[in-house]
Amino acid sequence: xxxxxxxxxxLLSKLLSVNDTLENFFNSLRSWKLYIKKIKLTQNxxxxxxxGISVILIxxxxxxxxxxxxxxxxxxxKNQLLKNYNIDVKFNEKINYGLLPKPHFSAKNLSILRNKxxxxxxxxxxxxxxxxxxxxxxxxxxxKDLAFHKTDFNIYxxxxxxxxxxxxxAPNENRIFFKKSNIFFKNQNDEVLFINKIFKGKxxxxxxxxxxxxxxxxxxxxxxxxxxxxxxxxxxxxLANFNSKKIRLNxxxxxxxxxxxKKGLLDVLFINKxxxxxxxxxxxxxxxxxxxxxxxxxxxxxxxxxxxxxADFNYxxxxxxNLLTEDxxxxxxxxxxILNNKNLSANINLxxxxxxxxxxxxxxxxxxxxxxxxxxxxxxxxxxxxxxxIVFNESLITLxxxxxxLIGTVKLNFNDIDNFYSSFQINKLNRKDIKQIxxxxxxxxxxxxxxxDNPKVNExxxxxxxxxxxxxxxxxxxxxxxITFKNFINNFFRAYSG
Length: 498
Hints:
By secondary structure, the chain is an alpha+beta fold. The protein has helices at 2-38, 43-62, 70-85, 160-167, 329-335, 417-423, 463-474, 482-497; strands spanning 88-90, 96-98, 104-114, 117-129, 143-155, 176-186, 192-206, 211-220, 223-232, 237-244, 249-256, 262-270, 273-281, 285-290, 297-303, 308-318, 345-355, 361-371, 374-376, 380-384, 388-400, 403-414, 436-444, 449-457. The chain is elongated and about 105 Å long.
């Protein structure tokens, strides 16, 4: 009985305390009410007061998500990402709520999964949310936009389905952004084939044209480019555009994926030449062939396992400035290091019937063989009119601190040396019966300087030519133009004649 009495007393004491607290609260409100009534508010003061109350109410509303159950929110976000975008994720850290620039939840070190395997890790994911469900007692959120910041993807051949499925997502009003991210393309041996940098990318649904669209600014092998991909689900077509100003290449592509073997049409603007290619894609390769064109034509194939590129490019006319000048397309490609890749194997043949701005040059056959980062152009040749065939043997392209160098052996095979002598106005006293001249050479494309060694005339060494070339190599002026080249030729035959 005494214990019961003590309990009752304690309970009554608590009730009295609560009652006192409530009474004090309402008394305070009455005091504030009387105080406000006594104050004669100016029009400006009223406006400031209303504005302050409005700001407090708005901020209070936007801060409601801070009280949500974070575990429930993570599950909601995970389920919505999978349902709406085919993106499976794993939260490695607790999410946080942020108000600026607009309400969002953020997650650090988020894993992106495919078949329960991690294919990407993003440093920071922002999930922007709708504003209509903040009073939800179920802690529900409506995802609007996604922003992936500093994401590293490790992609193998089979993982391309991740990006393919993204383009297949159902239409919605939301967007996905990718910023400062990398895609590491790997082979089956876990070796990195190449890295694609994404500076800024955006995925969205184009309601006007009923297409899923991905636009991205990228860089691969130090070559910046912009790509746009559109998926027309109703007509089962993919439309794509690739543009790189640095290498002056623009590609317009349309692929029909209604059947297992996909067919498409590719418009190529390359070296200021426009060509259309028909191609087909299966599980092992891509094969392409240009449309009927009497002047220019392309054909080739790309095998996936192992990666191998073969192509024949044929031109009826091509400017010399597009070949080996400092701003040529070939030099731009070499400088970009796109070919300096140990996992790239290629056999490329460039056939040019006529060099348009050098009337004496024609029938260029440039053979480029690439394997394990080595660029070999042996067995290439070009004709000087019909009089001289210039053949390159054991020749390589190297890229080092000194710039781009062409090194190898050149053979000059004369078909009609008399016409050659006449073209260069060689003194008749210096004209000898010569069938072949062979020289080792090093040509630096950056400095445009040339060096010759180990001369042979008609397969025999010549001391006079040796001495002449030593003097030439030691001189500072080893840059050719039309005049200096003509003088070099004249002095060469003068030295040989003694």
